[in-house]
Amino acid sequence: MKIPGLDSLVYRSFWALDRLGRIRTVRDLAGANLDAVGGIVVAVTTALGDSICFTPGLGALRSRFPKARIVGLFHRAFAELYRQDPRLDAVIPYEGKYVRWRETVRALQAARCELALVPYIADPDVIPLLYLGGSRIIFRTPGRDTIYRFMVANPELLSDGPNPEHALVRVATMLRYLGCPVTDLVPRLHVGDVQREAAAAWLLAHGIPPGVSLLGMHPGASIQKKRWPAGNFAAAARALLGDDVDRRLILTGSRGERALCEDIRQACGAPGRAVNAAGDLPLTALPAVLERVTWFLGNDTGVAHVAYAMETPSLTLFWRSDPERSGPLHQLDRHRVIARTPLCPPCRTKSCLYPSCADEITVDRVLDAARAMLGQPAAADQDRGMT
Q1: The sheet that has 335-339: what strands, in order across it?
Q2: Which helix (H) or strand (E) holds 92?
Q3: Which residues pair with 92 in a beta bridge?
């Protein structure tokens, strides 16, 4: 919900309350008794990929604070993905700017979390929600951010420049200040037997029995101008299905991307062997489905991170986002990248030349990478590299 001027009003109100001494927060982590913290809320209200990048920190937090409640404040679009995660004691959905904010505050108050972690830049209403919800230590990751500096623990950690760290490394940097080392940066999503059984039943109902070689493609993106053209996806699908008559294809996406996926399914040359799951497959079932996928192609970093977390062999296409900050960090033989290098300058000036920048990544280049990955076993981790 966007109300003109409301963000500024909320910010200025909290600034004034701080100057008047009406807001009380811990200003220095060194002076905080972290061992006495009974509850910790992790606020990731931005993107799906951001939440997945924090998953290595969940186990580290549990080890450092074994008796504390650990609560996730996640955007409602993907909050249910973490509802059964054993590393979390509770999940609170963030409904979006100022939407159902009273219910969110009440849920945060009931969770009793003195410490709030905000690893990524969030909407201006998130910090007030956390404060009104009872958090008195609000710790944010280093990086460009001028909002609410005055009420953030250790504000000197907030620089004026962009944070150059990979999103996974940023989590380790943040938790290190809490005396909480993150020794394993591999992202992981929890998938239980119930989710696996539901995914298997969904696939079987759509004509995909166990043991079938299943390819996955996610042609949509949160920003339309981040998409590889639909015709390219269709051409790649047509070639890969033609390579093996027993292969099947699943196209994933949101409800709004169903028509896009249907166009690709119809153009893939074997629509009877392709399933349009966009808008039909629940996000909560996506990790378990990707466990069944032999190889996955995407150009949306959020869903690509689901593949990374499930160790599904994947190829991600980058021309707008920077793979050094949001691409795969581990198992680079299994999770490969084709990147337009350098990143398209118009993307940095907000004047996009799509689809010419995306078209520089050719179908032949994608097919070469796909066939190489489908024909070789997974190898051990190797240094970061790009196809």
Answers
A1: 274-276, 248-251, 214-218, 295-298, 314-318, 335-339
A2: strand 90-94
A3: 73
Provide the pLDDT for residue 332: 93
Signed CA dihedral, 337, 295, 170, 221: sign only: positive
> Tokens representing 259?
């028509």
Write out pLDDT tens, residues 34-50. 999 999 999 999 889 99
Bridging pattern class, strands 248-251 and 274-276? parallel
Highest mean pLDDT among 168-172, 319-323, 372-376: 168-172
Between vectors from CA 186 to CA 180 and to CA 187, what angle results, nearest 5°?
95
Q: What is the pTM of this model?
A: 0.89
Which domains are present in the chain?
Answer: 6-176 (3.40.50.2000), 193-374 (3.40.50.2000)
User: How would residue 379 be classed by pLDDT, with cut points 50, 70 and 90?
Assistant: very low
CB 191 within 8 A of CB 287: yes
CB–CB of 305/48 below 8 Å? yes
CB 215 within 8 A of CB 249: yes
Task: State the distance between the two ends of the chain, measured CA to CA, in whole angstroms.
Answer: 41
Q: Which of 344, 369, 363, 339 is nearest to 225 (CA)?
A: 344
Query: Where would I find the H helices in 112-166?
Result: 126-132
b/e per residue 237-269 (b: at least 16 CB within 10 A): bbbbbeeeeebbbbbbbbeebbebbbbbbebbe
CB 107 within 8 A of CB 89: no
Interval 324-362: pLDDT, tens:
888 999 999 999 999 987 777 666 666 667 777 888 899
Tell me 229's DSSP state: P
SS3 195: helix
DSSP code per residue over 197-221: HHHHHHHHHTT--TT--EEEEE---
Which residues, 6+ apart, have CB-to-CB distance to 356 below 8 Å? none
